[in-house]
Design a protein that fits this description.
2 strands, Cytochrome Bc1 Complex, Chain D, domain 2, 14 helices, globular, two-stranded parallel ribbon, single chain, about 300 residues, 2 domains
């Protein structure tokens, strides 16, 4: 036996234990909790049974009686696990809590959400345990779906169709990026939760004014964030031209980096929007502004003749 190595390990454990005692910290139990997954029984079967009743009344119309998916996505099986694999359980919980049911978001209590999530876990063949799944945000973050989940079965496709660019870069900016960014910036001054309920205006003179507020305000913020997250391929389309007729510099490393930054901040904004948290979205808008300014600085505001893509 290597007594030296053993004593060193004991010394390290003693120091960690002493640190916990002297600081009032529970770091060792916390580390253990952070490794928990949905495979170790984080809900009870009785809780899942209550969730099944709630699911039938609140969720089945959109997601199917057996969670197979209908108007809404499937909630059981490889497709579901492929989406949520590796994520903390708090993400799923908050998705249900803040955005479901789609026709009455926020009407479920957190206890009811926990019961529905427990039923979803049971439907995905995760085992029940002896303690109910709680609704505490910190505890939910310490539980995660297993990372090694089966994704959806790949579908064999033929050659991908190509879509030639139609608009120039300035038109893409004005049609997609500018209005979508402004939707996010508006959250700084008006919480979408406080806006009037949506509805078409029968007396409006144009289609835009009639249906401009037809979607629930937070859904508009969701869509704006998704627009930023998905715009990458449009900004990297080969053959697209700047307004001055020059090719968009898709081969430049700085352009590629800023496109990645913009799409990433779009994903962050979408996550904040899904949390229905105006403060979080407002904080993200600083990143949106930075992502835009980085590119504008080189290709618009102080651009040289060699790099200018859009007018100042």
């Amino acid at each position: 036996m290597n007594w030296g190595s053993t004593m060193q390990r004991v010394d390290v454990l003693c120091l960690l234990a002493l640190a916990c005692v002297t600081t009032g910290s529970s770091s060792l139990p916390l580390l253990a909790q952070q490794t928990r997954t949905t495979q170790v029984g984080v809900f009870t079967n009785a809780q899942a049974t209550r969730g099944a009743v709630l699911y039938e009344g609140k969720c089945a119309a959109c997601h199917g009686a057996r969670m197979e998916g209908s108007v809404g996505p499937e909630l059981a099986g490889s497709g579901f696990l492929g989406v949520w694999g590796g994520q903390p359980l708090s993400n799923l919980f908050n998705k249900v809590d803040k955005t479901m049911p789609a026709d009455a978001p926020g009407t479920l209590s957190r206890v009811q959400v926990a019961e529905i999530v427990a039923y979803m876990l049971q439907a995905n063949q995760f085992p029940g345990g002896t303690t109910n799944l709680g609704a505490d945000e910190g505890a939910l973050k310490q539980i995660s779906f297993p990372a090694s989940t089966k994704g959806a079965t790949p579908v064999a496709l033929g050659p991908s169709p190509s879509f030639p660019a139609t608009g120039n870069m300035n038109q893409v900016m004005r049609g997609i990026l500018f209005p979508s960014s402004n939707v996010l910036f508006d959250v700084q001054t008006q919480d979408p939760s406080t806006r009037p309920k949506p509805g078409a205006r029968a007396d409006a003179s144009t289609t835009t004014s009639r249906y401009g507020d037809v979607y629930e305000p937070w859904a508009v913020v969701d869509a704006a964030a998704i627009s930023l997250a998905e715009v990458g391929p449009l900004l990297m389309t080969p053959g697209r031209r700047c307004e001055n007729g020059k090719p968009v510099p898709v081969d430049r490393a700085d352009w590629q980096r800023w496109v990645r930054e913009l799409t990433e901040v779009g994903r962050v904004a979408y996550k904040a929007s899904q949390a229905r948290n105006a403060e979080m979205v407002s904080e993200v808008t600083n990143q949106v502004a930075d992502a835009c300014a980085n590119c504008h600085r080189v290709y618009r505001d102080t651009a040289t003749a060699a790099t200018r893509c859009t007018p100042p």
